[in-house]
Structures are given as structure tokens and as C-alpha cells.
# Entry
Amino acid sequence: MSIHRPKELSLFDAAILGQAARDAVVKLDPRQLIKNPVMFATGLVAVLSTALTIRDAGSEHFAVMVQISAWLWFTVLFANFAEAIAEGRGKAQAAALRGTKSSAVAKKVASVEARDFQTLPAEKLKAGDLVVCEAGDVIPGDGDVVAGIATVDESAITGESAPVIRESGGDRSAVTGGTRVVSDRIVVQITTNPGESFLDRMIALVEGAKRQKTPNEIALTILLVGMSLIFLIVVATLPGWASYSGTAIPMVFLIALFVTLIPTTIGGLLSAIGIAGMDRLVKFNVISKSGRSVEAAGDIDVLLLDKTGTITLGARQAAEFLPLSNVNERDLAEAAYLSSLADDTPEGKSIIALAKSRFGLTEPKNGAMTFIPFSAHTRMSGVDFEGTEIRKGASDSITAYVAEKAGRTPGGIPKELVLAVERVAKVGGTPLVVAKGDRLLGVIHLKDIIKPGIRERFATLRAMGIKTVMITGDNPLTAAAIAAEAGVDDFLAEATPEKKLELIRDYQKGGRLVAMCGDGSNDAPALAQADVGVAMNTGTQAAREAGNMVDLDSDPTKLIEIVMIGKQLLMSRGSLTTFSIANDVAKYFAIIPALFLASYPQLQALNVMNLASPQSAILSAIIFNALIIIALIPLALKGVKYRPASAETLLRRNLLVYGVGGLAVPFIGIKVIDVLVATLGLA
Amino acid sequence: MDAAGILQILIYLAVITALTPLLGGYMAKVYEGQARFLGPVERGLYKMCGVDTAREQHWTGYALSLLAFNLAGWALLFGLQRLQGMLPLNPAEMAAVPPDLAFNTAISFMTNTNWQSYGGESTLSYLTQMVGLTVQNFVSAATGMAVLVALIRGFARANARTVGNFYVDLVRTTLYILLPLSFVAALFLVWQGMPQNFEPYTTATTLEGANQVIAQGPVASQVAIKQLGSNGGGFFNVNSSHPFENPTPLSNIVEMTFLLMLAAALTNTFGRMVKDQRQGWAIFAAMGLMLVIGLGVATWAETHANPAMVAAGMDYAMGNMEGKEVRFGIANSAIWATATTAASNGSVNSMHDSFMPLGGLVPMVNMLLGEVIFGGVGAGLYGMLIFVIVAVFIAGLMVGRTPEYLGKKIEAKEVKLAMLALLVFPISVLGLGAASLLGAPGAIQDSGPHGLSEVLYAFASATGNNGSAFAGWTGNTLLNNSLMGAALLLGRFVVIIPALAIAGAVVAKKVVPPSAGTFPTHGWLFVVLLVGVIAVVGGLTFFPVLALGPIVEHLMLGAGTLF
# Structure
């Protein structure tokens, strides 16, 4: 399956930047600003500082005061700008998805049988409404097909150009708003109210103003507010303590100290990080219904993966012919070859290919051939060739068939056949039994082909502490063999929806977080039960409602990427928080000596950066504090680099980069700015 | 410093480390109800007080019981002080303690601080010392340990509702841990020459022919628990530098061991109760690392004599001996000062006020970091666990998972409660300290940075429930008694309540089993991280005032300015 990705946006797209610059100013609105307490506090002191500057016009510190006030405003604007860029990028992604949606017109009908319809704009549709869609129509909203069958072009959201079939009943009934009917006619029951479709929800997730904070974001905000309160106390009590030595500290300098100490860096970038996380998900063509589930994805301990299509290639390949003792291998191959001539499935083709390569068989030139297609009822297929009936299928159905032909009562399966079947199953293959007339010939070994590279991916997941469990309908013997070959940690054989649900509950009872993907209606309970349930876009509406994410490409292996995006989101927050707090050390060394130098000249010893003057030291610290937000926007948008590794390795690396780096960087940065400030004579 | 000094420090650390698993294991047994040798007494007590041992409490019930019990203890101690003139066991005929002093002293002993605005031998009757102070020495220590055990249960249990029964924890701590240890310790101290009697004060004639009143009384029984229970309130005014309160070099090292012994061992109790001793050792290592750094700085600072004295041509080979007992010398004074402030104990064997600026900085920083370097019995570890929550939350995110500690997810509620507890120190030390500085400048003895250090030390000591002081600052005024009383209560209960609330929050959570993706909290990386977070949070909060106090004093001392 091809993974379609919208056009990669360059990090600084000119149109987005322009819009973001305007939005940054709009976001100064206190009602919006208050959602971010750290920035709200910064805004408040910027107002205070500006007022003080106006009051003290012409005083000795006036020039520095003007600059400090200006940089305080820049700090808030830069933070708004970061959020606006992330939002702009998110909106651009979402707009590409939304595309045709707004222009759609719905043809509402009163009942499934009704021929007359009433046209109305798609936005007016409510859940439960029935609409009819004919060839050429755009489907006006998410829903379920309740009557008819049609081919639908879903390229607008999946990027897959081949139209897909959607029909009532079964697992292919769900349709997405914005897709186009190519042929035939269907009646769709709308399942979402206006503004609640997947796309609407996704768009809300990338718009800062409407975005709900995720649980971890709330916790982090509390931490940041707590830190800010501590620094508020530090700064507010400082004049009292300083008065003992007769030091008077200008209010603006105290304000500067406060703003440099509170975690403005992470405070300013927090919502940008969150939006960018959602944005990365959209880029992978996954739509999440909430930010919460993206975060939860980072915590996943257990991944349930369907075998077919995820771990193995969808199709199995014939690997060998296993004739019974009184049968020639060539006879078996010939029968298998003939029975597969009309079989268009990949399995059938692979049997032909194997027979050709082993015995150089060719298609018979003459002879009447009647092909018997596979049916779920008989569970076998075959050919009637020159009066001989050749059949292939599951061992029990073929033996029953042979017994019937021979006029025996269907009984046990011959021992030899059982052994051959078991031999195939033990190595993870699927046995296909072949019979000619009333005679059993042998077994074709169909082999599951493990996807290339999947073993390595599982090893990576294991290193990350994530357990992989393969879900398969195969018998335990086959499942165990494939599980071993693919390198999954565990498997669930002969899986039924009930068994799946039970497995998830068991893991959750043990305290683990489980992710799974599914498509059928019978997956819905399990999807709802899982902590992260990814529904395939090709699946039923029930499945899509039950999961917390929808994968537009219907690619189950994407669970792995989703987990990584979740982890990256949390890591980016943690790393920037660490960086932000570590920064404060250098700021103290810049500002504290500057504040008290007049009373205690000896404190010059703490001026380790050897900054030019107290004024330039304070100004440099506040400039650094504002500029670092701009400098870190790319990191916030792209996310901290995530390499799958154990927690210990990740922690050591990130502590070194963002902790130790956070200590060191501002010493250099403030010094450089101070040199510039002094050279330009700004303070 | 000489080799003997270094050897003494090493022996001291080795003894503490060796005792940790032994005592820790024993205490874990006590809290899991496996110690039963005083069964009849224990059951008798429960029967008498109507405690149903089978009924465990939700954290709110636990907290209410604790508050009620402490309030009752406070009222009893207050009453005893006011009425001591009419009560027996008062051979020195002490009058009633003035109300504001009695108020302050009752709070101070209830909160395990033992800040003393009075001299014991000149203010209190034997009855007040024994039934009032010594009893609070036991139960305030037991209160701290009970809170810790409740918090440990929060982490150890899963999907539960209750965190234990306060009264059971209190009784078990006292009966099986504090009483037996104190009993043996007191006998040992008596053997070393400490008085334990009800005699009136002896009047002796000195060599110069002057009369000297020699105070005595039931000293050993109070000193034992004073050291063991991180109380610190001396029988005598000069505490453990008094020959009757610390008679011999052997009593000195044993009393120093008592300072840290239980607090250190509780880390192991924690490890055992959460079924992973490595977790306890990691916290022990973090505490130990900070202790060793403090010891190093203090000892180094004190072995260097005051440069002004060197300039005056005085003998400085011994280092800075001002305010130190000649019997103990530099190493033992520095170890004691570091350990007593690390442990939230507050007993002293030298005068911290006379330390060199950097030497005095160490006790101050030990307290300002939140009294978590071993800290008070119970209190140190629950304070540390609050820091662990913050450290795990910040750093845990960096491994790409919702932060978790011991399998419990750290979410908004835990962060909120931890931040609430962390706000206590800045509010109380910086806020109330500044109020005292501005409101009562007359209480300060010295000018300049040293005077500022005196106030800072006092409020750090009160908030950390330590009880030691930079002598020179007068605490016994109406404003200062009130502000200090507020600091004592804030530092005790505004940490205890969030700690219990955290216990209540995490006890209900399920346990996420560890995997390779779990943030490991038992290795060196975690130890360094935890120390880093404590140092950064404490450092960022107090660096400005420390710069105005000991740091600038040190810099000015180098330039020849004294205070």
C-alpha cells in the first residue's frame, strides 16, 4: 500500500509566516493570552514596565527602560508567533484534507426507497439523515452505506488513486465526507452532526484557540505556574532583603529579573509543540480525535498487530508439494497446476509458478475444463478436466469430499495426511490438500511471507520497551511458527473478536497500555477498549467511531509511527522544560551582580561572564530570553529527534543535550549579546 | 585538615551506611505488623483508646487524626508550661512560662523543631521537661514517620483506597522503634557520665572561690530521643556542647550517629516496602552525595582560619576555633553542624554563628534545600519524595512517556500537590523572613551581610523544622515569636497535608509494570538528576539572598571586612 503524504511544507513557508506575524499581534488579546499563564504574566509585566517607563521619562535609566519594555513585548509576541506558525502549518495540512468538503451539496431523501430528494448544503446535515449519492456526486458527510453498492474515489483524503468499493452491510460500508462516487448509486446514512466529523475534530486540534489542553499539558502548565509563583516570591521579597544593606533596586530591573526567571521558553513554545505533534500525525495521514490519545500513544506498552497485511504480506506463496506415499510428486503438481489455472488469487498464481519451475508444466492445449470457483460454503475450489474432478482446499473439507466420492461415510482424516498437514502448520505454513476424484494426492505448502524488515522493527520496539502481540486466525501451531519467524513477543491464535477484547482487558488489568488497529464492525469493542485504537479508513463506521484515531491509508504498520509521534511530543516538552529551567542559572549570574554591585562591589566576582555594565547585563539577559524563543521554534515544530532506544539511553542523551546544554548555552549567548549591546552603545 | 579528621568522617559515613539496611529492615517489619514482642502493651493501648486496628483510613481521615492528635499534644504542652509552678517535680521552683513563650515552645516541640527561645535549665521544671518536651520529642518524631509510611503505602499499594491507620502507625513507631532505641541509648549515655536524676541544682565553690550553680536533672532520657527523633531541643541552653549533654568523645560520635541513623535507615524501609531496595538506595545515595559535599565544604572552610586573625599574627594552625568546643575540634564540629542541619535535628555542639561565611553557608543551604538531606525522621524522606515527583515529572517526559514513579503515573494532581509543598519554603523563608527583617530590625545583632544571614538562618531553621539558630538574633519578641510560629506551622503541616494527599492520589492508581521504556529510578543517572533538580530549585530560589548574605560576606572577608 502506498503511503500518501501531503506536500511537505517548508519549515518557514512565506505565506504562513506572514499570516503568523499578523496573528501574533491578534493573540495579544488578554482573553486568548490567559490560556497560557506564563505568557499572560509576561504580558502583564510588559504593561507595567511600559507604564513605569512612561512615568520615568527622562530619568537616568530611561533608555534602558525603553529597551527592556520593548523586549518584554517581543517576548510575548515571539511566543504568539510560535503558536501562530504551528497553527498555520496545521491549518494548511487540514485545509488540504478538507478541500472539496465545503462546496458539497447533499441530496436528502426521506427513506431508502424514496426517489425524490431535496437538495441542501452539506453543513446542514444531521446525524441520521439519509442522502443519496450518484455517480459524480461528492459524498456530503461521514456515514454508512445503507443501500446499494458503488465505487468511490477516496483519493482526496487517502491519496490512493484507485477507486474502492463501498456497499451496504459488511465491513466496507463506511464512507467519508469529501470523497466522490465514481459509479452506481448508494444511499448513505449520515453518522455525524455538523462540526463533529473527523476532519472537523482534527482541524480543531491544530487551532490554538479552540484546542483543549491534553492531560500532560495541564500537568506541565501547573508545574510552570508553580515555578513562576516561586520566582514571583523571590523577586517580590528581594527589595525587602536588599534594603538591609541599603540597596534600592529599580522596579524595571526587578521586572526584568522576574521575566528572565519564569520559564518563558517552554511557556512560549508549549502550545506550538502540541499543535506540531498533531500536525505530524496529519502528515502521516492519521486523524486523531483528541490530543489525549496521541499522548497516550507514547505510553503504549503492548501493540496488538494483525498478522495478515501487517506482519506478513497479504498473500501466501506456494513453497513445496508434499505427495502422499503412493503418489508421484509430479502428479500432485499437475493436479495442483490444473486446479489453479483459473485461480486469480496470488496463492493460485504462486502454485502455477511453483509447478512450472519444478516440472516445467505447461497449459494443456485441448480438453474441456470447467472451473469450480472457491466458495465459503464448500471451502474448496478446483476444476473438472476431461471428466476428472480435481479439488483443493482445507484438509477437512477435501477429505469429506473424497469420502463422499468413494461412497464412504465421512470419517477421520488418513494418518499420513494428518502428519503432512501438521508438518506444514508447524513451520507456519498453510496446508492446502489436493484430491483427484476419490483419491487424495497430497498437500501444497503455502507459506506466509514475512514482510521484509519487520523483524528489525519489532526488535526496535522491544528495545523501546514495547511488547508486540500478533493476532491471527491461524491455529496455534502455525501462529507460533510465524511469531517466531517474525520476532513478535507473543501471539493470539484462533483469534475471535471476543478473544481479542479479553486479551486487551487482561493486559490492562496488569497495568499496561494497549494499542491496536482494526477495521471490521466486530473490532469495534476491542478498538473502544484499547487505550489507543486506530481504525482503518476502509473499515466500518462502527470501527471508526470506536477507535480514537483513523488511519486514512489503512496501513496497520503505522501504529509504530503513531507511537513514535506520541513519544516525540512528550520528549519535546520535557527537553524544552529542562532547557528553560537550566537557562536560569546563567541569568542569575548576569543579573544578581548587576543589581547589587552598587552596594557590594565585591559581588563583581560573581560576574563570571564579565559583562560590560549592570545595565547591559540586565538588557542582554532579557534579549537572550526573548530571542531563544525564536531560535527554538524550529525545534518545537519538528520535535526533538527521537531515536528508538531504551529509556536510560534517551534520558542520558537528552539530559546532556538539554540539561547541560541549557546550562551552557545562555552563558555564551548572553555574553555575545552583551558585547553587541556594549559595542552599539545601547546601554 | 589532618588525616585523623578525614578518618573520622569516613568512619562516620561507614557506620551510617552499615546501620541503614539493619534498622531499615527492622522498621519495615514494624510497619508491616511483624514486630509483636510488645503485643500485650500495644493491644492494651488500642483498647484503652478505642482504636480499631482493622479499620484503615482514607488519606483525609489519616490527616484529620494526625491534626487532632497534634492539636491535643500542643494543648497539653502549653498547659504544662503555664501550670508548672503548681505541679510536682519542680525542685528548682520554676515559675509559669510566659504565655507567648509557652505558645511558641509548644508549637516548636509539636512540629519536631525544638526551636528554643529559652534556656531549659533556667525556665522549665523537670516535669515539663519529661512529660511535656520529652513526650513531644517521641510523638512528633512518630508523626513524621507515620506520614512517611502512609506515603510509602501510597506507592506500594495499587487500586486501593486507604493508606493505613494513623493511630496504629503512631503507636508502633513509638513502641517498637523510638522507645527501645532511646532506652538503650539513654543507658549508654548515663554510662558515659550523663546525669539522670531528680536532684535540685548543686551549688559548688569554684577554685576562685566563687559560687557556681550546677544544673542537672533527667538529662540522658531527653538527650537520647532528642538525637534519635531529629528533635534537637537540648536539656541545657548550649545543647550538646555542654559537658553534661555530651560528656565524652565516644558520646559525641554516638550522638552524631543518632542524628542521621533513623532518617537514613528509613530510605531502606521505603525500598523494602515498595519491594525494590534499589529504589531506597538510590535516594540514600542522593542524600549521601549532598551530605558529603556539605561536609567537604564545611570542613574545608573551617580548617582555614579567619584571614583577619592570620593577619594579626595569631596562631591559626587549628583553623577557625571561634565558637567551638576545644574537646571536639574542627572535624567533629563540622560533621555535627552539617549532619544536624541535614537531618532537621538542630542540636548543636558548636556555635554555627561563629563559623566562617562558607562554613555557615553549609548548614543554611542544608535547611534551605528543604531539609531533605536525610532530613527529619520521616519528614526528610517524604520531603524528598516530593522532590522526586518533580524530578521524575520533568525528566520523565524526556524519555517520551507520561512520567511515572514506581509504576504510578505522575499526573496533574500529583504535580499540583508537589508544587504546593515546594512553595512553602519560598513563602515562609523569603516572605516571613523579609517581614521580620523589615518589621524588627532591632532583633538583629550584627550589621551587613552577617546580620542578614542571622534572619535567613532563623527562618530557614523554623521552616525546615530544624531548630538550630545563628546566635545573635533575638527570636523572643512578639513579632518574631509570631512570625516564627507561622513558619513552624507552614513548614510542618503545609508539607504534611500535600504529602498525605499525594499518598491518597497514588494509592488509587494501578501499577504500570516496568519495561525497557520505563524511566529507571534506581541508577546513578537518577541520583545525579535528583540532586540536580534539588540544587537547581533550591539554588534558584535562594541564590539572591544567599548572595546578599554569606556569599558577599565571604567575598568581603577576603577583602578584609569583618562583621
About this structure: The longest helix of chain A spans residues 558-596.
